[in-house]
């Protein structure tokens, strides 16, 4: 029979590793099964020769000062690098500084609507139309829509206005990156598991989870063979998109019995789309344009472009530009091949700076990862759909003291969609397992 452990953890992303480290410290024997040949999941830091920063194909920033991330960084002896927020936006063929005015204005309007939205949720799109009728300037409404698409990776026609209003009124000040990239944090977490009862198996794709009270059997395949593992309990950190995948879809995992208790939670959440690409250029050409006006700029926006947002590696000065598209724009891009995405990214950066930028000529290397087509992610990060109140709590609830759930989508303390939320949910699930022992 397959070897037995106290707990099986499915997935070695931030949530799975946080859970494993916690359980390892508590003296449990843990088997972590990870489909990819690497740890980190939606954290994927590439150390490229000659670049002073990691190229992050997934998570990159720490939004605000979330306790789960900052306390981990402290323990790991890693710094949080503050990043400047000087922004320029392309308008009528010119680059202008972007003010925070529309953001402040929309946050205020959302705060006012919160009471009404708590009694009756509507979509972001419907709310913006209502606010427009009440006199919200068109520019502010457009700004809000783009933020929901680009930052929340959400479709405004489906996203819950209540959830967005709650998140935005809370607000998060500060914008950091972990020194050495998020990869360094994940390696530290893995290091914490060393010398404990944690065993990590990479390249192990879980395809089926058969469970009943007090017993879980996990079956799957690795490059070499099929495998099975057994434990009285399991922590499932599968991404939302994987949990929602219909039977037979790439990456889908079959639960027997099916997770009927989770159906409503899974219907109340959506997996947002993001396409993120890294352009390595021969020089940071933008630093010299227009008399050095953009030298300290970190973000550039062209709302009309296929990739509407770019950012630099500041405070590190290096010829790296990150291209970002979220929500419906990302869904459109995600159908393209890598060379087509490269063309779109080059054209978008060119449209920010104009023909003088000569981006194609200056491009040294291009890296992109399509998280939507990735069978072990099936999307970027979660958002709440209209009427999906309580869905995150419901997703996080354990089933019969046997199956536990963690991952960014299962964080219900305001860090969902982020590494911080994934870390917190993993730790929470591990503690719950220990309590239930
Ligand atoms: C492009 C992009 C940019 C982002 N930017 C930021 C940012 O700047 N800041 C931020 O805080 N967050 C950001 N995020 C979100 C952040 O990356 C995630 O919230 C977080 O990493 C999720 O961690 P997790 O452990 O919940 O899930 P994951 O990291 O997805 O971990 C789940 C693991 O399960 C594995 N798995 C899947 N299927 C199977 C299977 N069948 N068998 C075994 N293993 C399986 C996966 O390979 C993965 O390793 C970004 C995400 C993306 C995609």
Describe the structure.
The chain is of the alpha/beta class and 437 residues long. The protein has three domains: 7-43 and 181-270 and 388-436, 3-Layer(bba) Sandwich (FAD/NAD(P)-binding domain); 99-170, no CATH class; 274-370, Polyamine Oxidase, Chain A, domain 2, CATH 3.90.660.10. It contains 14 helices and 23 strands. It has a seven-stranded mixed β-sheet. The chain has a five-stranded parallel β-sheet with strand order 10-2-1-14-23, with helices on one face. Strand 18 and strand 19 (309-311) form a beta hairpin. The chain is globular. The protein starts with 6 loop residues before the first strand and ends with a helix. The mean pLDDT is 95. Flavin-adenine dinucleotide (FAD) is lined by residues 10-16, 33-36, 41-43, 58-61, 205-206, 237-239, 242, 251, 253, 274, 276, 371, 376-377, 380-381, 407-408, 417-420, 422.
Quick tags:
alpha/beta, FAD/NAD(P)-binding domain, Polyamine Oxidase, Chain A, domain 2, 3 domains, seven-stranded mixed sheet, five-stranded parallel sheet, 33% helix
Q: What's the SSE blueprint?
A:
Blueprint: E1 7-10, H1 14-25, E2 30-33, E3 45-46, E4 55-56, E5 62-63, H2 67-76, E6 80-82, E7 87-91, E8 94-97, H3 101-119, H4 124-133, H5 138-150, H6 161-170, E9 175-178, H7 182-193, E10 198-201, E11 204-212, E12 215-222, E13 226-231, E14 233-236, H8 240-243, E15 254-256, H9 263-268, E16 269-271, E17 274-281, E18 299-301, E19 309-311, E20 320-326, H10 328-333, H11 338-353, H12 359-362, E21 363-370, E22 382-384, H13 391-396, E23 403-405, H14 419-436
The structure holds flavin-adenine dinucleotide (FAD).
Flavin-adenine dinucleotide is lined by residues 10-16, 33-36, 41-43, 58-61, 205-206, 237-239, 242, 251, 253, 274, 276, 371, 376-377, 380-381, 407-408, 417-420, 422.
């Amino acid at each position: 029979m397959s070897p037995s452990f106290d707990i099986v953890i499915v997935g070695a992303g931030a949530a799975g590793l946080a859970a494993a480290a916690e359980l390892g410290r508590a003296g449990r024997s843990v088997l972590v099964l990870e489909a990819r040949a690497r740890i980190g999941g939606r954290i994927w830091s590439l150390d490229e020769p000659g670049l002073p920063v990691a190229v992050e194909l997934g998570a990159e920033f720490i939004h605000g000062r979330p306790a789960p991330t900052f306390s981990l960084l402290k323990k790991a002896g890693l710094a949080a690098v503050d990043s400047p927020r000087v922004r320029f936006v392309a308008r009528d063929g010119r680059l202008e500084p972007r003010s925070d005015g529309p953001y402040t204005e929309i946050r205020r309007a959302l705060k006012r609507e919160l009471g009404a939205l708590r009694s009756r949720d509507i979509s972001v799109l419907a709310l913006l139309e209502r606010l427009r009728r009440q006199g919200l300037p068109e520019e502010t409404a457009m700004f809000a829509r783009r933020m929901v698409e680009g930052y929340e990776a959400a479709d405004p026609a489906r996203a819950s206005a209540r959830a967005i209003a709650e998140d935005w009124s809370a607000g998060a000040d500060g914008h950091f990156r972990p020194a050495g990239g998020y990869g360094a944090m994940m390696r530290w977490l893995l290091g914490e598991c060393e010398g404990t009862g944690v065993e990590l198996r990479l390249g192990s794709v879980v395809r089926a989870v058969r469970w009943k009270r007090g017993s879980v059997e996990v079956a799957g395949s690795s490059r070499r063979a099929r495998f099975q593992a057994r434990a009285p309990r399991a922590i499932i950190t599968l991404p939302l998109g994987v949990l929602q995948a219909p039977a037979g879809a790439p990456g889908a995992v079959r639960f027997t019995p099916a997770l009927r208790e989770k159906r409503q939670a899974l219907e109340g959440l959506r997996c947002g789309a993001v396409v993120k690409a890294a352009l390595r250029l021969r020089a940071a050409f933008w630093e010299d344009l227009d008399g050095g006006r953009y030298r300290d700029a970190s973000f550039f926006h062209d709302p009309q472009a296929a990739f509407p947002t770019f950012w630099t590696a500041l405070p590190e000065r290096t010829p790296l530009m990150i291209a970002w598209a979220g929500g419906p724009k990302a869904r459109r891009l995600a159908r393209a091949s890598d060379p087509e995405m490269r063309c779109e990214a080059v054209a978008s950066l060119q449209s920010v700076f104009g023909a003088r930028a000569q981006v194609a000529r200056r491009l040294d290397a291009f890296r992109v990862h399509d998280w939507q087509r990735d069978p072990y992610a099936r999307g970027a990060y979660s958002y709440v759909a209209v009427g999906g109140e309580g869905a995150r709590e419901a997703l996080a609830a354990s089933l019969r003291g046997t199956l536990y759930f963690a991952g960014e989508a299962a964080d219900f303390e305001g860090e969902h969609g982020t590494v911080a939320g994934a870390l917190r949910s993993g730790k929470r699930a591990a503690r719950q397992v220990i309590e239930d022992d």
